[in-house]
């Protein structure tokens, strides 16, 4: 900055940066010494959205369905019951040729129906589970054997009271001399019992068998897991750091103003006040 005399008047110029492209210059005249002048610009506030991390991923791992009953018939019937035309626990082959399995699906023992006279045609055989924990959905997995030219039909049925039954799986006719594996499922049903219901065909060659029964289900008292909602996030403006005030020396620089702002800061004295002060000094 440069100081120069001007016939008793001192032209003083100050420059300040306000973040706007171009020069900002304020000017006035005075005969009195000029103390340090400080121009303080209003701080700008930048409204910035805070960085927001995404809500944590909540993974609900389904718990395995509880086993309602599992039986391979190796040592007992596991609580299964049978009616007047019984399912029989046995090992090895059945008593009839050209029908029935030659052995268990796994292990030694299995359950089968004997269709020899007088147990055909269309005779019913029931193998009913004990009362299970009440479920609202589930699956009965099992191995089955349906071999014989006059094979009838095997049904899997479920019930909530052991009196009214709903069929969830069935298979009819000769399926060959080998074991098959099946899964019979139910959903949105109250189930407390599962049974195997066999109907013999038109002759003795309709011995059927089941083995390795596993029943699983979602218990009626099991509630769905609760997942807490993600917390709400709000953006808070972050103020920009205020600018440091500028200090100016008491020397009298001579700098003719080239730009005048549309409105001078209130902290600057007006030109009229300095002229009045000068007139008083001359007098």
Automatic annotation (TrEMBL):
Residue ranges occupied by any MAM domain in the UniProt entry: 69-216
Pfam families: MAM
Polar residues bias (residue ranges): 243-267
Location of the region described as Disordered in the Swiss-Prot/TrEMBL record: 223-267
GO cellular component, one term: membrane
Signal peptide residues on this chain, from the entry's feature table: none
UniProt feature, compositional bias: Low complexity: 223-237
Gene3D superfamilies: 2.60.120.200
Protein name: MAM domain-containing protein
Source organism per UniProt: Rhizochromulina marina
